[in-house]
């Protein structure tokens, strides 16, 4: 399909906090980038698409673009939920070409400049993805609290449990316990009540306290981050398996915190991400239509 007349290659990273768009031309040069409001599979598909189109057109070079002239790849969380995925695709505007994939997929493409490799994204949740030629694999990312161990949400939940145990004498009352209980007037019942209705993002807000106190050598906070490193290492191993030549990149807000806590052999094969997820999606959009100089396909 390299002889098609598509002239713009658009990558979209839809998320619960914002939407990011990167546009490339046929030569792979960046035409522009833009950030917009949230776009997810959890809400109304038409609203998410309206946000995506608005964000695309916020790029000056694309202000008058008809999407039938563009190849578009959207990366978004929740693609494994079939009804939501189908509804989202069905509501899409007409595009020259369209592919909807997971946010982990585009993060991997961006991190490894469109090539082979593995990523584990460590933010509010945890999910891993790898590409090795035509083969892809995913690990983790099944949601909180039943999965996402090692994530910001998990760290916050574990910190809440630590504070409650300290409050009734099962653990030593330390700075981490004091930090959480202070937000609830040192009333463990109030903290427990809050936790009963808190969402993943709410728990993840306390990951910052864990990271800060670990930097001050608070033992309980350091232990939680070490445990998070082991959980993230397990996700990476599930992806890599026997693929000894695949590089690993960590992405997400907690990447820098968790990276030095990975298993030593995983640290040795780690690399910094080259691009973000939206750029990775744009590379995928372009790769489908522009032959690789190495392979001609």
What are the main properties of this structure?
297 residues; alpha/beta; Nucleotidyltransferase, domain 5; five-stranded mixed β-sheet; four-stranded mixed β-sheet; 9 strands; 19% strand
How many domains would you count in the coordinates?
2
Distance between the termini: 9 Å
Strand content: 15-25%
CATH class of the largest domain: Alpha Beta
Strand order of the largest sheet: 3-2-1-4-5
Low-confidence stretches: none
Largest sheet: 5 strands, mixed
Chain oligomer state: single chain
Number of helices: 12
Order of helices and strands: EEEHEHEHEEEHHHHHHEHHH
Outline type: globular
CATH superfamily of the largest domain: ATPase, nucleotide binding domain
Number of strands: 9
Query: Mean pLDDT score, rounded?
Result: 93
CATH architecture of the largest domain: 2-Layer Sandwich
- Rg: 21 Å
- CATH domain topology of the largest domain: Nucleotidyltransferase, domain 5
Percent of residues in helices: 40-55%
Structural class: alpha/beta
């Amino acid at each position: 399909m390299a002889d098609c007349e598509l002239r713009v290659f658009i990558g979209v990273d839809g998320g619960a906090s914002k939407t990011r768009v990167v546009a490339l031309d046929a030569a792979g040069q960046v035409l522009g980038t833009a950030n917009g409001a949230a776009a997810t599979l959890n809400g109304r598909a038409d609203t998410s698409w309206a946000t995506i189109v608005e964000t695309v057109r916020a790029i000056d070079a694309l202000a008058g673009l008809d999407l039938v002239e563009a190849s578009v790849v959207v990366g978004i969380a929740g693609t494994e939920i079939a009804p939501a995925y189908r509804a989202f695709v069905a509501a899409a505007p007409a595009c020259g070409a369209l592919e909807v994939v997971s946010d982990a997929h585009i993060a991997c493409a961006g991190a490894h400049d469109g090539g082979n490799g593995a990523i584990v994204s460590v933010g509010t949740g945890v999910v891993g993805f790898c590409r090795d030629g035509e083969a892809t694999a995913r690990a983790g990312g099944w949601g909180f609290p039943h999965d996402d161990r090692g994530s910001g949400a998990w760290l916050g939940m574990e910190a809440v449990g630590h504070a409650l145990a300290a409050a009734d004498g099962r653990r030593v009352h330390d700075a981490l316990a004091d930090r959480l209980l202070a937000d609830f007037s040192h009333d463990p019942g109030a903290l427990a009540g809050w936790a009963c209705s808190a969402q993943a993002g709410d728990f993840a807000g306390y990951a910052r306290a864990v990271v800060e106190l670990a930097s001050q050598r608070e033992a309980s906070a350091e232990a939680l981050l070490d445990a998070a490193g082991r959980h993230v290492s397990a996700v990476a191993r599930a992806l890599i398996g026997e693929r000894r030549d695949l590089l690993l990149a960590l992405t997400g807000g907690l990447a820098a915190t968790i990276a030095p806590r990975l298993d030593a052999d995983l640290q040795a094969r780690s690399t910094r991400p080259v691009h973000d997820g939206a750029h990775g999606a744009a590379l995928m959009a372009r790769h489908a239509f522009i032959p690789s100089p190495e392979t001609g396909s």
